[in-house]
Amino acid sequence: MRPRGRFLIPLGRESESQSQFITLQDRFRGEEPSVSFAAQMAVYLADPMARSAVDFLAEQVAGPGFYTTAEDEKAKGVVDDFCLHVNLDEMLLTTAKEVVGFGNCFWERTEESVKIIPILSVEKVIRSPHGLVQGYKQTQTYGGGTLKPGDVVHFRWNPVNGEAFGTGLLRTLLESLRVSDGEIRLSFAEMKARMQKAMIDQFEKFSAPNELWIFKNLGPEELQSYASSLKRIPRRGARFAYNDEADVKQAVQQLGR
After folding, report:
1. Whole-model pTM?
2. What is the model's pLDDT at position 12?
């Protein structure tokens, strides 16, 4: 008879695994995020809608914080003192924001404390061919060192296709789309930025009409002198007076109804 209950499937050692998690190229150079954290940070800081979405979801995740319970009040006091020492409430909210936005957050733990590693400092994750993390490489700006995997707590949300890094909301905004015919379409963030620029260009171009200054009976040299003076006139608040006959017309494009 087959016994009832739950079973744990024994996991073999890494050396016994046959599946490969990383490419040969990534094995030697380390795995980097598909979209750099710097690019994702730029969108988070510059796009109010993206930042609001990340912050709102993170606040829903973190909620009012945490609480501890224990039968031993002394043990509870030790835990509460440690949480107060590391400011765990703020760490949880920051962690939630980075996990939701970037898909990743990194804590460094020591014998006495834990702290959040700046996400822009993490450049690569070094893994064995079978996916075992061997180190976290930091950028040269932050010293270029490699952190031991046992010293780092890596919160990784939604890793795609076995990647070393997780996937947050900001990456999706920055990924271009390859369609079936080979066309590569712009990322949503770039499309939005171009649309914003187009709106600004249209506003600057058509918010004030162009002016056509007509000076009668002027020779080429005098006309060139007048044109040079007109180019130096500010867009608002300045006028010139001449004793020659002149006319100023607004060159307004006729718009259809």
Report:
1. 0.72
2. 46
